[in-house]
Specification:
about 400 residues; alpha/beta; Rossmann fold; 2 domains; five-stranded parallel β-sheet; about 30% helix; binds cytidine-5'-triphosphate
Length: about 400
């Protein structure tokens, strides 16, 4: 794979190393990449937008709004169009802003809006690079899925010698090229994940819900994206951050989750239904807040659509369908029945009898039941590790022929 035709959003920060970006743009343009430069206001003190726009053959954006043309530089559009965001040089200040979600210029807004892979090539003086605050910010950014293009060692603009020099343009170019060339196991595959609880409205202020945190589903969405899949995450109400490179659709009720999942199902190679969907919903939703009156109060409930079961009946041979089962008794038997009834390829069984498993924890202990009758027990692990185990089985299933 080459860089030809790739949309590269190139963020340039205020650092003396900004002058090296002219050479990097030349290399990228020569490789027929489309380079869109966004500079921080400070970066324009080090290299002119005119130089970078001449080399990239496109206008360079610094502000949200261009007073001369009256045009609005839409950060969401810029970020969504990008195949990758490269920030080089990435200053200590901008890295700190990224790490903490600050959004005070066009580049930081683009970063927060980006769903594509993000590459950061820092440049700063060696003591700034070594400072615990910078170290923590870098760790945080890597945990958010950003890729670090490490700085080199050598003479710095301050006259000091050490680590902190922006990687050379040729090295940044080679780094990007090799990252794009590595074929990930699920590159080109589409995945659909449901996660979190559903809230079934009783009246405008009350609902029937459950304690699902969504952590397991979010971990699976993250793991699938890391393996190269294009992931759509249909999420019930949670307070979790969207994993990097994942497209998230927010829903509340089981019916909304069903509609969103149905819309994406046909396109998906991999479908993981980890949401804790309400099995019943109020037959009628009151328009006004229900006032207390009698001693007893009953709500009539009706069944919700079984999303996994319904979509399971539409499953085609290329699709891998994974369901979850949370059981308190006769675990294996119940899960085996669910596998057959819902036409799933795998059922991930959580037993409420296992310590550290289930809702709201950061760990889980699962047993996976396969369609061919195989039962695979796993140890107690972090939800990220459980997600990786499940994804390994999905990869094997996708490439079983
Ligand atoms: N599920 C779903 N739609 C529903 C209910 C559940 O898609 N309305 C999915 C969940 O996302 C999960 C699996 O089905 O993957 C869990 O099944 P469960 O809720 O236990 O379903 P039931 O078959 O109703 O099981 P039980 O008889 O234990 O209530």
């Amino acid at each position: 794979m080459s860089l030809k035709g790739k949309n590269i959003l190139l963020g340039v920060c205020g650092s003396i190393a900004a002058y090296k970006i002219a050479s990097l743009i030349r290399l990228l343009v020569k490789a027929e990449a489309e380079v869109q430069v966004v500079m921080t206001p400070e970066a324009t003190q080090f290299i002119t937008p005119l130089t970078l726009s001449t080399l990239s053959k496109k206008p360079v954006f610094v502000d949200y709004y261009d007073p001369k043309t009256g045009e609005w530089n839409n950060h969401v559009h810029l970020a969504l169009k990008a195949d990758l965001l490269l920030v080089a040089p990435a200053s200590a200040n901008t890295l700190a802003k990224f790490a903490h979600g600050l959004c005070d210029n066009l580049l930081t807004a683009c970063y927060l809006s980006a769903k594509c892979p993000v590459y950061l090539a820092p440049a700063m003086d060696l003591d700034m690079w070594k400072h615990p605050a910078t170290r923590q910010n870098i760790e945080k950014l890597q945990a958010h899925g950003n890729v670090l293009i490490p700085p080199g060692e050598g003479e710095l603009a301050s006259g000091l010698v050490g680590e902190g020099r922006l990687a050379e343009p040729e090295d940044i170019f080679a780094f990007l090229k090799s990252s794009l060339t590595v074929a990930l196991p699920l590159s080109g595959k589409k995945a659909l994940v449901t996660a979190g609880p559903t809230y079934e409205a009783i009246d405008p202020v009350r609902f029937i819900g459950n304690h699902s945190s969504g952590k397991m589903g979010y971990a699976i969405a993250k793991a699938l994206a890391r393996l190269g899949a294009e992931v759509t995450l249909i999420s019930g109400p949670t307070d979790l951050a969207t994993p990097p490179s994942v497209y998230r659709v927010d829903v509340r009720s089981a019916q909304q989750m069903f509609e969103a999942a149905s819309a994406h199902f046909g396109d998906s190679d991999i479908v993981v239904m980890s949401a804790a969907v309400a099995d019943y919903t109020p037959q009628e939703v009151a328009d006004q807040k229900i006032k207390k009156k009698a001693e007893d109060f009953n709500i009539t409930l009706k069944k919700t659509v079984d999303i996994l079961g319904t979509l399971g009946q539409q499953k085609t041979a290329r699709q891998t369908l994974v369901g979850f089962a949370l059981e308190t008794n006769n675990e294996l038997e119940n899960a085996q029945n669910k596998l057959i009834r819902k036409n799933a390829d795998f059922i991930v069984l959580n037993s409420m009898q296992d310590k550290g498993a289930g809702f709201a924890t950061d760990t889980n202990k699962v047993t996976v039941l396969q369609k061919d009758g195989k039962v695979i027990p796993f140890d107690l692990k972090s939800k990220d590790d459980v997600a990786r185990d499940i994804c390994d089985l999905i990869v094997q299933h996708q490439f079983r022929q």
